[in-house]
Protein 1
Amino acid sequence: MNVTLRGETRPCRTVTFDTQRNAVLLIEQRLLPHEFKIIATRNFRETASAIRDMIVRGAGAIGATAAYGLAQGARQFRGRDLEKFSAHVETVYQTLQAARPTAVDPVNAMQAVREAMIGGETVEEQQSLAQAAAEEFASDDVRHCEEIGRHGAKLIRNGMSVLTHCNAGWLAFVDVGSATAPMYAAQAAGKKFHVFCDETRPRSQGATLTAWELAQQGISHQIIADNAAGHLMQRGEIDLVIVGSDRTLGRTGEVANKIGTYTKAVLAKRHRIPFYVAIPLSTIDWNLKSGSQIPIEERHEHEVLGAWGVVQTRNSKLGTRIGPRAYVRVANPTSGARNPGFDVTPAELITGIITPAGIFKPAALWRHRRELGFVV
Ligand code: MRU
C-alpha cells in the first residue's frame, strides 16, 4: 500500500527479500505509529528473532517472513553435500517454526518452500528453488488478499459502521490485508463508511497499527476501548464485524485469532450483527480436528501489566514533541498476570469466511476443500 511520510508518498510492502545481501527486509512494527523504519535481518536466526519479538507480526506477514527466512537460511549454507544441507535446512525450519506457535501460515509457507526444493538435484539448485518459492508465496499472499477484497467489498454498504479487531491489515500480510481488503476495495468503489478499531490490549495493534493504516489510506475511523463494542452494538452503531485469523480449521470452521475475537463474536450473535472472518488460503489448517488442539501462545505478563508508548509534550514555542518509545508500568506492582495471545471462535458464531475463492459458511469449508487449495 502507499505510505505517506513527511509529504512524500511511496508504495511499500511489509516484508521483502534482498537477494544481494541475503537479507529479509521488514517494517519495524513495534515503532509504529510513531516512527517508520525498515530493518534488515542478516541471517535466519535474526529472522526468527524478528518474528518472536514481533518486529513483524500478523499471520500472513510472519508466513512470508518464515518463507524468506527458510530461503535465507538455505542460501547461508556453504558446500555441496546434500545430506549436510538437508540437516541444516531442518534446523532452519525448526528455528523459524518455534518462533510463534498459533499461526499456521509460517508452517504452510515453509512447507511450500520445502516441497519446491525437492525439484533441485544440487545444493545450488535447491537454494535457488527455495528463493523462487518464497517469492511465489509472497506474491500469492498479495493476490489472495486482493481477491478477498473483491469478494468482501459487497458486504460493505454506504453509511455502514464496521468493527475490526487487532490488525488484519496490510501490515499483517505482505500487502493489502485480509479484514481490511474489503474496506480498501469498498473505498476504491467510492463507498463511504466508518471503521471502529478495537484497541486490542495488551499490545494495542488496533490502536497503533490498524488506526495508522486507515489514517494513511484516508478511511474514516475511531479507536474504541476493547470493552466498548457491546455498548455500541446495543445502540445500533455497529453494522458489520470483519476480523482476520491466525488459523482456521478446514474441518470444523473454528477460527483462532487475537484474544478478544471470541468475545466480539458472542456479542455480534447476541445483537444479530453479521460476523465475518477474512483469510487467505495459507491460514487454513486441514489437519486439526478440533479448536481445542490449536496451540495458544501464552505471552509474557509484562504486556498485561503495562503498556508501551511515547511521551508527548506540548510547548508553546516548540509545539508538540514526541519522546522516545518507553514502557510504562500500569498495574499494581505486586500483582502478576495471565496473557493468552489468541482465542478460538466456534463456527456457529461466524456468519461467513471471506476467502480468495469466495465467501463460505464455516461448516462448508471442508466441502469446498479442493477450491480452497487442499491437496491430499
Ligand atoms: O499477535 P499478532 O499481532 O501477530 O496477532 C495478529 C492477529 O491476531 C491478526 O488478527 C491475525 O494475524 C489475523 S490477520 C493476519
Protein 2
Amino acid sequence: MPKIILTGDRPTGRLHVGHYVGSLKRRVELQNSGEYDKIFIMIADAQALTDNADNPAKVRQNIIEVALDYLACGLDPEKVTIFIQSQVPELTELSFYYMNLVTVSRLQRNPTVKNEILMRNFETSIPVGFFTYPISQASDITAFKATTVPVGDDQLPMIEQAREIVRRFNQTYGDTLVEPEAVIPENEICQRLPGTDGKAKMSKSLGNCIYLADSAEELKRKIMNMYTDPNHIKVTDPGTVEGNAVFTYLDAFSRPEHFAKYLPDYESLDALKEHYRRGGLGDVKIKRFLNAVLEEELAPIRERRQELEANHIEEIYEMLRQGSVSAQKVAAQTLAEVKRSMKINYFEDGALMKEHAERNAQE
Ligand code: TRP
C-alpha cells in the first residue's frame, strides 16, 4: 500500500511558531525523508468558513499568507501537492455520504468539537457546518487515501473520528477506504506551545503569538515581554521553571550546541534551569538567549518568506491552481470508487436496468 500524507491548516491567520514546532517542521522532515509516495498539504478554507461564515474576507486574504508560510518553512512544490480545499468539490460530496455513518451524539462527544464550541462561545447557536466538520475532515483524509496525518495533539479526536468512518464505510459497503494514522510531535512540549503570555494556547485573538513572518525587531520585542515567573522579581529571588513561558520555549527550541554558541557559561538547559531555580539568574539573560535561539531558527524562514513575497506571488498563485487541479483528480477517483461501492454509480454501466429486468422475470 502506498504511503500517503495528507494534512492542512485553516487559513484564518498567518502561521506562528506553535504551528511550526507542532506540525510544519515535521512535515518538511517527512517530505525530505523520501519515504512517502505522495504528500498533500491542504489550505482548509472551507473548514475555516465553518466558523467564519460572516467573515469570508479573512479566510480569502490568508490563503496566500499560509502558502507563503509553507514555502518559507521548506515545503517544496516539487515534492508536495499544495491545494485549496474549496477547489475540490468532491470533498463535500463525500461528506454528504459519510454523514449517514455518524450519529449526532458521537459528534457531541468529540473532545475537539466540544472544546472549540466552548472557546468560541457558540453556546446553543452552533453552526451545523461547524458541528459536522469532523466528517468533512474525514473526507479530506480519505479522499487522498492518506495513511499518515501529521497534526498537533488537539487533532487526535479528529483522526479517531475519521478512522471510525472508514471502518463503518468498509463494513457497510465493502473495502474501499484507507484507515489513517496520526503522527504527533515526539517532544511533548511541541504538541502545544503556550502563548507568549503563558496562556495555554497561542491564538491570534489573545495577541500572544510569534508569527513566522515577524521581523527580527518584533520577535525581540515579543520575547522581551514574555511571561516568566511573576514571583521572580529580583535577580537573586529563586525562580520557577514550570509554567514559565521562556523555559517552555527553550524546551521546544534549544539544542545543546546553542549553549556553546550563545551561553557558554551553561552546558545544558538543565544547568540553566537549576541556576534559575536557585536564584541569581535574571529574566533578561534567559530572554536574550531565547531570542538568539529563535532568531537562528526563524531568520532563514523570514528571509525566504520576504523573497517569495517580493518576487514570486504569481508563481505561488499558479502553484496553488495546479495543486488544486491535481488534488481534484485524485479525489474524483476516490469518489468514483466510493459511489461504486455504494452502488450509486447508476450510469457507469447498465446494471440498474438489468437488475430491474431480473426482478421482473422472477415475479
Ligand atoms: N482541523 C485542522 C486545523 O484546524 C485543519 C484540517 C482540515 C486538517 N482538514 C484536515 C488537518 C485534514 C489534517 C487533516 O488545523
Protein 3
Amino acid sequence: MSPGGPELKAAAEIAVMERAGRIVWEILQALREAAVPGATTLELDTLAEKLIYEKGATPAFKGYRGFPGSVCISVNEEVVHGIPSERRALKEGDIVSLDFGVVVGGFYGDSAITVPVGQVSPEAQRLVDVTRQAMHDGIAQMAAGRRLHDIGHAVQERVERAGFSVVRDFVGHGIGRRLHEEPQLPNYGKAGTGMRLRPGLVLAIEPMVNAGAPDVEILQDEWTAVTRDGKLSAHFEHTVAILEDGPRILTLPPGIPPGREGLPQ
Ligand code: MG
Ligand code: MG
C-alpha cells in the first residue's frame, strides 16, 4: 500500500465512474439476453465490444496483460478469466459468468453477473443466488468507519452457511484511474480488522463461490481458472463507492433495485 493509503475519489470523479458503471450495467443486460443455448462465447464478446464502442467507452480487459477478449466468460466449473471462443457454445443448463469493465473519461467500471442458460438445476440456481446475496452482504458493510475485512467476513459467512466455499486465489480490489488499485479485497476475513473505510474509497467487490472445495487451477491457456474438483463456480461483482451516507453501487443505475443482478429486469 502506498504511504498515504488508497486513493480517495472526489465527488466529480465518482460521477464519471458512475457513467462507466452505467455502461457496464447496460451491456451486461444485453449479454444476459444473448446467453442462450447455442450462442458461442465469442459471439457474446463480439456483441459486448460493439456495444462498448457504440456507447463511447473503451474495453478495460482487452489487451490487459495480453487478455484477448473484452469479456471474461467463464462457464460452469470455470471460475474466472475464461477466454471467449468460437468453439465454446453455451448449452441448456449451463451457468455462465460474464465479467467485464470499461473505461470512460479515464475511469474504470467493473462488474460481473452469473446467469443461467435456459433451465438449470436447483443446486446451480442456489449457488448463483447465494453468490449474489453474499456480494450484497459485503456491500452492506461498506460504510465509513467500518473495517476492510468486515466486508469479506460478511461474504464468507453467507457462503459457508450455505455449504459453499469462497475462492481464495482471487480477490476484489480498489478501482479508479486504474482497473486494479489498492487495497485488495478478499472475500473472507476476520471482522473488525483491516483498514478503516473512508468516504471516497471505491471498491470492486467480487465474490467467487465454489459449490465444492475452494481450490482452483489455471488451464494451459494460462488464463482460465477452473475448480480443481470440477464442481460449479459462480461470480458476481459491483463497483461500489463508499460515501458519507453509505455505499453507492456505481454499476447499478438509480431506480434499479439491488438483488436482481443477472435476472430479467
Ligand atoms: Mg470484473
Ligand atoms: Mg474486478
